[in-house]
Amino acid sequence: MTDLLGAVADEERWDQALHRYAVSLGADQVGWFVLGSGPEQLAQWGPRFAQHPDPRYWLRSPSADGAPALVGRGVTAEATLRYAEHYRAQDPLWDAAMAGYALAGPGGSAVVTDANGPAAQRFRATAFYNDFLRPHDIGTRMFGGGQNTRHPGGHLFASVYRLRDDEGFTADQVRRFHAEFGALQHTAFLHREMLALRTRTQGLEALMERLSMGMLFFDTGGRLLHANARARLLAALPGHGGLRKLLAGVPRADAALGALFAQSLAGESGCAELPGGLLLVSLAVGDLAALGLGHGAPGVAWVLMERALDAAAAAALARQAWRLSPAETALLLALLRGQTPQDFADARGVRIRTVRAQMSALLLKTGTQRQQDLVALVARLMLLAPGDFQKE
After folding, report:
1. Which of 81, 203, 243, 341 is the most buried (most CB within 10 A)?
2. Are 345 and 351 in contact (CB under 8 A)?
3. CA-to-CA distance for 170 and 100, rounded, in angstroms?
4. How far apart are CA 182 and CA 146, in angstroms?
């Protein structure tokens, strides 16, 4: 078990450790290890596991949502499919495993194995053994099942088997598998979640690196998961100490950024000033789906707008998207450059009442209610815009 625990974060080491664990139990192979919500789901999804035998395929759906997950396998896809579709109903060991699982109750586990001695000899004369197990080099098997009430995808169903071996598993081996099943379930769950987090983060990183604007992604605790190349370049420039501090994590930043982070976690848009002409705009995680990230990575995305470079392009995009008038476009450009409505009125030599009317029209056309919502919306538009509109 120590070997398995040490390998939960490493996919290649995990497969090797899983095999060594099976060997330590007197088995030759791992049959399959599945995290699921219950035996009904396991039976229902058997053919799908055969169609997609790579455990990495099942990382697409977070197990926290109750989706099943294949975390290890040793039998062929063909054998899995034939068992799920034709032979499971004929298997007395499946029935015994499900009965034991039901009796174990919440938090419990159960392990069953093919009978030893004379009963085993009789079993090996059955059609099920000769038509299914023997052609796939499967001999004595041991099934286990355990319930984890703390997590919807944390019930573990596992099997190990010997190759054409009539000796069977000893009583000590069965007792050990049963005693260690809770720890085994914990390691399988940790392995699956760590690989899922890495996969989601890698997908997010690839997306962020394709964007020409600076972008930061934090986990829900405010720790930086990734800053794209543009953000790292900006942080290295003189006068951007506030951004460098932010890269160390939101908890180390100032109170205003902490408030923006809490606002972002709640799914609300917002923006904050950073020294050096940078505007930090919060982006709801749901918006990432429109950018090509089709799964829900838990955290907060922030966009860095460079006022000197991004404001004009953003205003031009907004003018086309919402058919803004020249005066409305000029006001939006001023806001993106950090001016207030009063600053804009003074610079244009017009009454503040006129600028407020233009501001109301801007909000109405864009479907926003506040100035910071408007700026955040335009930042999202920049991320979704064709490359022609984004700086080289």
Report:
1. 243
2. yes
3. 19
4. 7
Q: Which residue has the tokens 């088995």?
A: 27
User: How confident is the model at residue 117, as a pLDDT?
Assistant: 61
Q: Which two tokens stand for residue 362?
A: 């801007």
Instruction: Kindly tell me if the per-residue pLDDT of 324 is higher than 50.
Output: yes
CB 290 within 8 A of CB 283: no
CA–CA distance, 175 with 120 (Å, rounded to integer): 19
Asked if 168 and 178 touch (Cβ cutoff 8 Å), the reply is no
Q: Is the pLDDT of residue 177 over 90?
A: yes
C-alpha 286/C-alpha 269 separation (Å) is 11
Q: What is the pLDDT of residues 335-392, one digit of tens each?
A: 888 888 999 999 999 999 999 999 999 999 988 888 878 887 787 677 655 443 344 3
What does the pLDDT read at residue 234?
93
CA dihedral 144, 148, 154, 160 (to 10 degrees): -10
Token code pair at residue 321 = 């998207």
Locus of tokens 């600028």: 355
Cα separation, 18 vs 74, in Å, equals: 10
Name the phi and psi angles at 153, rounded to 5. -105, 20
Please give the structure tokens belonging to residue 87: 């032979």
Residue partners of 62: CB distance under 8 A and separation at least 6: 153, 196, 295, 296
Q: How far apart are CA 190 and CA 193, in angstroms?
A: 5
* Residue range 134-144, pLDDT digits in tens: 888 888 899 99
Is 42:94 a contact under the CB 8 Å cutoff? no
Tokens of 340: 């207030």
In this structure, how many other beta carbons lie within 10 angstroms of the beta carbon of residue 46? 19
d(CA 102, CA 91): 17
Ramachandran angles phi, psi of 273, nearest 5°: -85, 140
Q: Using CA of residue 378, residue 382, residue 386, residue 387, what is the dihedral sign?
A: positive
